[in-house]
Amino acid sequence: MKNKLFLASCISLTVTSLTFAYRAMLDPVFKDVYHLTNSEISIAFAPAFWGFTISMIIGGLLIKSFGAKRFINIMLVFHVLGIVITLFADNFITLFVGTLFVGIGNGFVEAVCNPLIAATYPDQKVKMLNRFHLWFPMGILIGSLASELLFKQLGVPWQVIFGSLLILVAVYGMLFRNITISEEQISGMGDDVKGMIKAIKKPLFLFMLVCMLFTAATELGTGQRIESLLKETGVSPLLVLAFIFGLMSLGRYHAGTLLKKLNTQTILLLSAVFSCVGLLALSTFSGYSTFAAAAIFAVGVCYFWPTMLGFVAEELPETGSLGLSLMGGFGMLSVSTVLVGMGNLMDDNTTGQETLRIMSILPAAMIIAFIILNLWMKKRKRTTHFS
């Protein structure tokens, strides 16, 4: 049953990641065919993130009382509606609504699956969350290659490619339908809502919540507008995106090995360093050297999302499902804000690579933040040891 639950969760997350990859494909379509501006496209894409945030927070608060199975049915409905509306989108409003519905469905995926996996594998939380979240970059790798080969090279209509998501939705729906989620698993999602709300007020959790705003924007903001950001480099932006997320998939699969050598807060510090250097390199390099810059960036962002969640699950377990949902929700909310800012910059004639240079401020700030976190955790463990 554990394996079936994990498989169904991974497929549902793959749907989420493919929607991210295919939005990069839709960027030039809605700009060149439907004549939307960079700002309009960024605003239309933004609900993928704040819609995600809303559903994650709702799921985190109510999953124990409402039931995981009910939320799974809801996320399936939103995925179907969002995909279908996007397929018929030909203007700003329909693209906005379709993206919103897909974003809400994606949020419920994380709201349900993150705490379920953490509860199902109590002694391997960080490892299994990294294994689960490797399907986010893997899906983007698959989606980017499909977009490049089928859409750009072979001229397959984007509606056919995007519509194939409905097949995966049907698969994960059938898998979840045949899985019994026990009361024991539900009870592993945290204490009552009052207890979780009390726990999320702790300074360490609030600190991690702020950090999540920066790490998520660094990882996901670039991918959504990759076509516009790297168009001056002379290489295919979608192939660069596939390369980045291919390396991320490999890294997350081997996260268990890394965790034997480094603690989570050290991994986060190194991730910030590589992310900052990678963005600066992407803002400077061109031609095939862009792939070298992309490799540095991939190493940086590889562990951000799952390790942030794993840190909270291990160091602040009392925050329960609400803590994990708030982390993911705030992360996605920050991406929606960054996307609008990036669109405005590019409409004001800031080049894509200049925009990437500005974006490097985010991981630079996280280098300082994670140095503080490392010192904080050392002091915390000394206090715990001697108490």
Keywords:
single chain; 387 residues; mainly alpha; Growth Hormone, Chain: A; 21 helices; 0% strand
Query: How large is the share of residues in beta strands?
Result: under 5%
Question: What's the CATH topology label?
Answer: Growth Hormone, Chain: A
End-to-end CA span = 41 Å
Record field, number of beta strands: 0
Question: What profile does the largest beta sheet have?
Answer: none
CATH level-1 class: Mainly Alpha
Instruction: State the low-pLDDT regions, or none.
Output: none
Shape: globular
Verbal overview:
By secondary structure, the protein is mainly alpha-helical. It has one domain: MFS general substrate transporter like domains (Growth Hormone, Chain: A, Up-down Bundle). The chain has helices at 2-32, 38-45, 47-66, 68-87, 92-120, 125-133, 135-153, 158-163, 165-177, 183-187, 193-199, 203-224, 226-229, 237-253, 255-259, 264-282, 289-301, 304-315, 320-347, 352-359, 361-386. The protein is globular. The N and C termini lie far apart (41 Å). The mean pLDDT is 88.
Could you give a short description of this structure?
By secondary structure, the protein is an all-alpha fold.
Task: Explain the layout of strands and helices.
Elements (H helix, E strand, L loop, with lengths): L1 H31 L5 H8 L1 H20 L1 H20 L4 H29 L4 H9 L1 H19 L4 H6 L1 H13 L5 H5 L5 H7 L3 H22 L1 H4 L7 H17 L1 H5 L4 H19 L6 H13 L2 H12 L4 H28 L4 H8 L1 H26 L1
